[in-house]
Amino acid sequence: MSSIKIRELNYAIGTREILHQVNLEIATGEFFFLLGPSGSGKTTLLRQLAGFTRPSSGEIFLNDKRINDLPARYRNMGMVFQSYALFPHLSVGENIRYGLEIRKLSRETQTLKIQEALERVGLTGYENRLPGSLSGGEQQRVALARALVIEPHVLLLDEPLSNLDAQLRIRMRRELRDIQKQLGITAVYVTHDQDEALSMADRMAVLVDGHILQLGSPHEIYYQPADTFIANFIGKANLLRTAIRDIKPLGNGTQDILLETDLGPLWSRSHKPNLKKDQLIFCCIRPESIQMEVPGEPLQERDNRVEGTVMDTRFYGESRELSLMFQPALPLMAVISNPRQGAFQKGDKFHFRIPPAEIILLDK
Amino acid sequence: MEKSLFRGTGYYLFAGVILVFFGVFLFYPIYYILREAFFPSGPFSLELFHLLFRNPVTRESLLNSLELGILVTFLTSILALSLALIFHRYNFYGKAWLSGLLLMPLIIPPFVGAIGIKQLFSRFGSFNLLLMNGGLMSEPIDWLGSAGFWGVVFLETLHLYPIMFLNLTASIANLDPVYDEAAQSLGAGFFRRFRTVTLPLVLPGYFAGAVLVFLWAMTDLGTPLIFNYPRVIPMMIFNMITDIYANPMGYALVVFLLLFTATCFLVARRWAGGKSYELYGKGYSAPREIDLTQPIEGMPSSKRWLKTGWIYLYLFIILGISALPHLGVLINSLAGEWFMTVLPTQWTFKYYQEVFTHPLAFSSIKMSLFLSLATVLVSLVLGVGIAYLTARKKIKGAFLLDALTMLTLTVPGLVLAFGYIASFSGTIFDPRVNPVFLLVMAYGVRRLPYMVRSAHAGFSQSSKTLEEASASLGASPARSFIKITLPLVLSHLLVGGLMVFAFSMLEVSDSLILAMQEKYYPITKTIWYLSGRPGDGLALASAMGMLGMFLLLASFLLAGRILGKKLGDIFRAG
Q1: Yes or no, beta carbons of B277 and A132 under 8 Å apart
Q2: Could you tell me if residue B420 is inside a domain?
């Protein structure tokens, strides 16, 4: 079982900086995600771990052993490629056997392990098929089996689901995570799909332009984004410029903060330190935090209550998204998780409440 | 509705013209020799074949030709493979230059190179004289072996290894590096990866190239002709043409050769076709090679220089040997007086002048220029048409056009020329009277694949969507073609035309066989004719060979310039 440490890693091609001062620790058995838009350097970072490129400076440790100069083939990291990279001239069985042969296992052991590997990904009986005759999902599984069968220190996955159709992608998310947890293997997964990262990761790093902007669990990153960029990138966000008008400490570092916003005065309950009166600050309101007021529901003290007009609605089945307009001319997005309650017409006016704890304060 | 119907008809009409061309200038001659071979006196009979193979000379020639083909394929494979491996694995100073120099043999037609080699390595050639003068040996050694057999092997290997090398390196470069990386991540070292992943994936490409080399070596007429090595099939056919009416054995031999090459192609296509893979486009291309120009961690710089040294040594040996034919021809062309000495005793430029004053030399240059330009025109019209119909219009039966074009690759020039002589004698095209028309057709049929391939590459690179966009804006098909498609494929057409021109200028077997009167001799036939003439014939032939070399070099450089780095694609097989 293996842990990874990356220290002060920089990578540049010529004068173009691809990765900048990356520091990371990935614990044994962790399912770690590198999330970023395309061109952010996430795949480059993964390839540094795999050993296909060397850092310009900085260090990579595997189980506290420095592996900067260790060629890829000695790193024992199983990799699942975006295009799967199944050897097209070898059968499924031969593809899986490839790494076992190099490890000089006996023929019987190899065959046994191939059977096990195929069973693990639900492809028993496929060993004589050629990759070209498999569907995308099946190729994906073979690639996974091939990477896992060598019992790698770390499993690396480079956007493994991006070539699959939507339904299969969602099913594979669950299966991948199940397999990773069953084996307890350390895994690093690169994706640009925030849903994938949020639903599968134990921990994740948000990478933009070669910089790690934030590190944390999906929960932390969703509810405590480091800045407005991440708030927008991970999930949906309504962002408002506000000014702090009052601060009421509640103890334990918690405080209620009165904000002056275009929606009128709003209360935010925050742990954020070093806030000052009259400070200008952003506030982030997730669409699901704007809730329909249930008639007769008692209002909490300092609960925020606003009235908005429905401009448009979009139905997603399990939820409904509303474009709302608030006085005087402030458009916001809300998500109603149970769309069966209430009918929404353009121009309808409703009262909404926003819990203070769900108004997130951001410096920039 | 009416209009689109008419347009469709237009395409089919053009396809019809192409089919007629193939019918008259490819199928009719083949049909004719097949008929003469299988129905010599009316009813079906294998008598000719029976007689042919009872003849020990035929059997010997057949074995010699096979041996030649196998040896040349084997040697070119070893050379090309080792070179491809070096160029795949290492980066070193001058890599681009050296890989360019490796293509040097391509610029010399092997039968011209043979003139040079003969002068250097014959029994009393420069090399033996040098060794004997130096006292290193007393008796001359027969380097060319068995009446020139090894000379033929040597020259054909030199001429063909660059094609194989280009084929291999292009296939390797087109391979998505992700397979290599996948093997790396599974723990495979360089040689295992090369053996188990890279090589199997480029094998279909290699195989297609190998078959081409094999058949080329087997059916080459020019080289054995210069070495005067008669016991190979092409030489037998060449000698049978003159008395084809008295001795119909030639038909059987030509048919045999045709069936043999067709079978080879068919087997190759079958085999490679079943193994060709949809290789994903280029994903992430990382530098994979070992860069010997930079310090490498974990390798002392002395070892790095040693490695570089070995690579240079190997490349320089190959380049040195490759340059021998050029050198021989060059010395020959400048030799005023050269008899039984290592180097000429008198040097002169007069033969370069004479090329343009000697009546036969000059008329043959004019003839070749005319023939080649006419061939370019014919292949341009037909080639662009075929490529357009197959790549874009997808009319019914387009595959037939494509198949026919590729079929022309399987017909050796020798066979076609023989067929022309046999079938068009006594018609208005009779080559004995005036071979110009048939020469253009013969050049055209056999160079057509180059043109079609170039144009096809152009058409498939420029998107069909652009044409559709043009049509949606109201442009007629002709306008779309001229304004949008043609400019986009122009560079490819230029390269195709250039290659057709260069290859036609230096075409050997059709020229040797079809041009029978001196006034119709193209350059190649004149070179052959002069090289056998006593006195200064050899020097004049060499000077013409040098000019041919410069012509090819200029064409390749120009084509490379137009195409950027993809020059290798021109020589790709299959």
Answers
A1: yes
A2: yes
